[in-house]
User: Which sequence fits this backbone?
């Protein structure tokens, strides 16, 4: 019989990313990243907060680490802002910028919390966008290598787990939110896959650097992953779900673990004139940097149905309002698949399907196919939280979400899946990638609104105390009625 508790060495923790949490966007020598520009130009118009202050973690990091310690964290996954370390993308290092990350990593290590570094989380230095268009140009691969080598050398003695590029699959879908793309190029969908090809090479270089420089280091990509279900049992829908899996998931996983492009997905992209241009030597480089593990960001499953060639291509939609049902569309790949709502699942207020079973399905499926250890680096519920007059946040909905997903992870482990740990999104409330600060994910509340950053005071939510008990009992508390 399997044990109710998680293994001793399981990495309990949570995650954040630099531009979403740090703030101090132009302080101590940091210059803009593309996210400073995107958030200011696109999202400020919608009334959302910018990355300028975010959760002010830059000034609260000691308090944040103390709260993580109080919760019992064994690990913390965060990203480094390239533009804080190299404000111009390349060249001179910014001493105060790198010092911030040394202070953070030291603080974590001194508190027994394992730092898990993500090298890149959507925030390319703006200087590189101005210089040559950022990820659109192959020059970025060399510049990323320069940055990555510097960071890996700085932290090689303190950091074992490295993730390279956050969510390439999501970047392809939402490319104008995750990369700065000039207006006149936004209808050239092939460029989405070209950017991704450049990222594949940057990823492989970072894998090789960790292998060369970090003794006992483990490196992998952090993929945004949604398993795909067929809408019905009709063979055409089942085939559409397979097509969607190949283009949405296997297209990335096959690169990370086999160093090749998934054949079916690539054949479709070639037929549609969307395939990336591959130069001599590119695939050899990609094949040289195989991942040791996979970091998984799982929020929802997706659902696909068949479509013919008469429909028009479109990529994934967004719900901007937080009112259920206002998602502005689903991805369509003509003659391949069409994503749709799964009628069997409830959703968040932003129309993300809630599916704990999908977590187990995903873990077992990926482990069976690739046989590598898995680490959850994101999973969580975006919701509007309310601060009560006596200073509490009763987020039972978040507890329910995390509990069910952790139980699904445990079931997968009981079926033999090798799990490194669980780092939900997010440690503290932070700036959403597309919905401001009102859509919250944190275990720790940050007292600010989209309009008013106030003092960004930290408040422990009910989920904080609950997660603390889960960690203290190595998961046994998951099976008890919550008494928070
Ligand atoms: C993932 C990103 C995170 C994050 C999260 C929630 O795709 O890696 O950066 O924010 O999703 O998304 P959102 O902020 O849009 O709600």
Assistant:
């Amino acid at each position: 019989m399997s044990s109710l508790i998680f293994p001793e060495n399981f990495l309990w923790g949570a995650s954040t990313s630099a531009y979403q949490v740090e703030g101090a966007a132009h302080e101590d020598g940091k210059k803009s990243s593309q996210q400073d520009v995107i958030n200011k130009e696109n999202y400020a118009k919608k009334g959302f907060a910018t990355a300028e202050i975010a959760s002010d973690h830059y000034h609260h990091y000691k308090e944040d680490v103390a709260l993580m310690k109080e919760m019992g964290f064994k690990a913390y996954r965060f990203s480094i802002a390239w533009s804080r370390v190299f404000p111009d993308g390349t060249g001179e290092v910014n001493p105060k910028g790198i010092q911030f990350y040394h202070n953070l990593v030291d603080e974590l290590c001194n508190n027994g919390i394992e730092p898990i570094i993500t090298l890149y989380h959507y925030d390319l230095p703006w200087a590189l966008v101005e210089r040559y268009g950022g990820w659109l140009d192959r020059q970025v691969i060399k510049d990323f290598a320069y940055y990555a080598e510097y960071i890996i050398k700085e932290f090689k003695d303190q950091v074992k787990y490295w993730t390279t590029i956050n969510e390439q699959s999501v970047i392809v879908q939402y490319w104008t939110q995750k990369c700065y793309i000039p207006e006149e190029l936004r209808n050239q969908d092939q460029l989405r896959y070209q950017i991704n090809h450049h990222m594949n090479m940057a990823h492989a270089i970072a894998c090789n650097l960790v292998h060369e420089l970090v003794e006992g280091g483990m490196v992998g990509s952090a993929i945004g992953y949604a398993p795909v279900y067929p809408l019905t049992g009709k063979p055409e829908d089942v085939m559409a779900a397979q097509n969607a899996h190949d283009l949405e998931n296997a297209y990335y996983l096959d690169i990370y673990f086999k160093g090749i492009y998934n054949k079916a997905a690539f054949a479709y992209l070639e037929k549609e004139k969307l395939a990336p241009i591959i130069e001599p030597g590119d695939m050899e480089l990609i094949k040289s940097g195989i991942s040791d593990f996979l970091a998984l960001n799982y929020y929802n499953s997706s659902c696909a149905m068949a479509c013919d060639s008469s429909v028009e291509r479109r990529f994934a939609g967004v719900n901007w309002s937080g009112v259920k049902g206002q998602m502005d569309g689903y991805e369509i790949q003509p003659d391949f698949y069409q994503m749709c709502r799964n009628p069997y699942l409830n959703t968040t207020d932003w129309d993300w399907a809630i599916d704990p079973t999908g977590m187990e399905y995903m873990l077992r499926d990926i482990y069976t196919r690739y046989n590598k250890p898995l680490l959850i680096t994101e999973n969580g519920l975006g919701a509007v939280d309310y601060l009560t007059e006596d200073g509490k946040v009763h987020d039972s909905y978040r507890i329910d979400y995390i509990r069910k997903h952790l139980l699904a992870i445990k079931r997968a482990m009981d079926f033999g899946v090798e799990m490194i740990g669980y780092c939900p999104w997010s440690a503290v409330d932070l700036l959403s990638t597309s919905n401001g600060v009102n859509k919250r994910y944190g275990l720790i509340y940050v007292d600010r609104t989209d309009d008013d950053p106030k003092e960004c005071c930290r408040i422990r939510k009910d989920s904080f105390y609950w997660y603390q008990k889960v960690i203290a009992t190595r998961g046994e508390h998951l099976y008890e009625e919550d008494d928070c």
Remarks:
- The mean pLDDT is 97.
- The radius of gyration is 21 Å.
